[in-house]
Design a protein that fits this description.
The chain is mostly helical. The protein folds into three domains: 1-62, no CATH class; 66-172, Tyrosine recombinase, N-terminal domain (DNA polymerase, domain 1), CATH 1.10.150; 182-356, hpI Integrase, Chain A (Orthogonal Bundle). The protein has 16 helices and eight strands. Strands 1-4-5 form a three-stranded antiparallel sheet, with helices on one face. It has a three-stranded antiparallel sheet with strand order 6-7-8. Helix 5 runs antiparallel to helix 6. The protein starts with a strand and ends in an 8-residue tail after the last helix. The relative contact order is 0.07.
Length: 371
């Protein structure tokens, strides 16, 4: 039994999308085979399907054709990338460039552990960090997993290779635990305000400092991810419902969620931020910012705060929801938009240790006076 079909998938917005390229599907002896027929014309696809069936019959239903890595890469991009967020597909595209340089002359069926070890060694020699090499191998693993779904492969050598990552120093780094204390936050915000007093009102640098000040507060109070925050539009702000909407197409999880507004953030949205463009945070030309992290890092350094990243503001939000407001873990998970509560528990497990030390310190008895 043989037929042609066009693959479909569910995109980040939850809608079903259908590809334009026809694929062939053959069932024989309880086994299913599929492959791209590399055409958007149904008549051509049917002809190529018949030729494929004839080829398999001539070979006793054993496929003698191997699949070049370049073909696998193109099909992977055509079929898998539409399921990903833009940031993820961009990251995969970067990894595919490095992978193609190394495996471009090979068939995916011929890639073995020694080839992966050679790729790792070449990337290290080129100065790539462990995190970069790990992401490249994760991209390759995803590609080979898809090749398995296309019935090109029976095993995923990259996944097996990654399982022994600890031995080769490619293991995931320990989770980051940095977050801002209240005094640190106050020092950074006061530094920005002091700097604004030296700027000419309405100038480029005044506007940038003002937006940085507002962005830091919004990031800490809402816990929005950087892309969610910088892409936030006024249509996503509902002052009557007192919440911000994170649309599915912008959320990392691909799921719509609503984030409550704390009083401080509400006042800034109502009283301080102008509605001159569709973006809540925007540069002096009205365009959204690509990144504010370098200015945050520089300002923190001015007040003696080191090792601070933009994502640490989101972690600060989670810590304060748990510590200051006493929210249960499941509510914090919903607030932050984690795909599961287990992710939240892992991300904030370090707080349990600090709470334990605080509890022990509170129970200590004062020392006896010296005789």
């Amino acid at each position: 039994m043989a037929s042609i079909f066009r693959p479909s998938w569910r995109g980040p917005d939850g809608k079903v999308q259908t590809g334009e390229v026809w694929h062939g599907r053959i069932y024989h002896a309880g086994r299913k085979r599929t492959k791209s027929l590399e055409t958007t014309r149904a008549a051509v696809a049917r002809q190529r399907l018949e030729e494929w069936v004839d080829e398999l019959k001539a070979n006793g239903w054993r496929s003698s054709v191997k699949h070049p890595f370049a073909d696998a890469s193109r099909r992977f991009q055509d079929e898998h990338f539409p399921r990903l967020r833009a940031a993820s597909s961009d990251r995969y595209a970067t990894s595919l460039l490095a992978l193609t340089r190394h495996f471009g002359g090979m068939a995916v069926e011929d890639i073995g552990r020694s080839d992966l070890a050679a790729f790792e060694a070449a990337r290290r020699k080129g100065g790539s960090a462990n995190a970069t090499i790990r992401r490249d191998l994760q991209c390759l693993s995803a590609l080979l997993r898809c090749a398995g779904e296309w019935e090109w492969l029976r095993s995923n050598v990259a996944a097996e290779f990654l399982q022994s990552a600890n031995r080769r120093g490619l293991s995931e780094p320990p989770p980051r635990t940095r977050y801002l204390g209240h005094e640190e936050e106050s020092a950074i915000l006061h530094r920005i305000l002091a700097r604004m007093e030296t700027r000419r009102y309405g100038s480029y640098h005044f506007h940038r400092d003002f937006m940085l000040w507002a962005a830091i507060i919004l990031a800490i109070d809402t816990g929005l991810r950087r892309e969610e925050l910088l892409g936030l539009e006024w249509r996503d702000v509902d002052l009557e419902a007192n919440q911000i909407t994170v649309r599915a197409e912008r959320a990392k999880s691909g799921l719509h969620r609503a984030v409550p507004l704390l009083e401080r953030t509400r006042k800034i949205l109502v009283n301080n931020l102008p509605r001159r463009t569709r973006f809540v945070l925007h540069d002096s030309d009205g365009e959204r910012y690509a990144d504010l992290a370098p200015w945050l890092k520089a300002t923190a350094a001015e007040v003696g705060i080191t090792d601070l990243r933009w994502h640490d503001l989101r972690r600060t939000c989670g810590c304060r929801l748990l510590q200051d407001r006493g929210l249960p873990m499941e509510k914090v998970s919903l607030w932050l938009g984690h795909s599961s509560i287990s992710i939240t528990e892992r991300a904030y497990a370090f707080l349990d240790v600090r709470h334990l030390h605080a509890a022990i310190a509170a129970q200590r008895q004062p020392a006896l006076p010296a005789a």
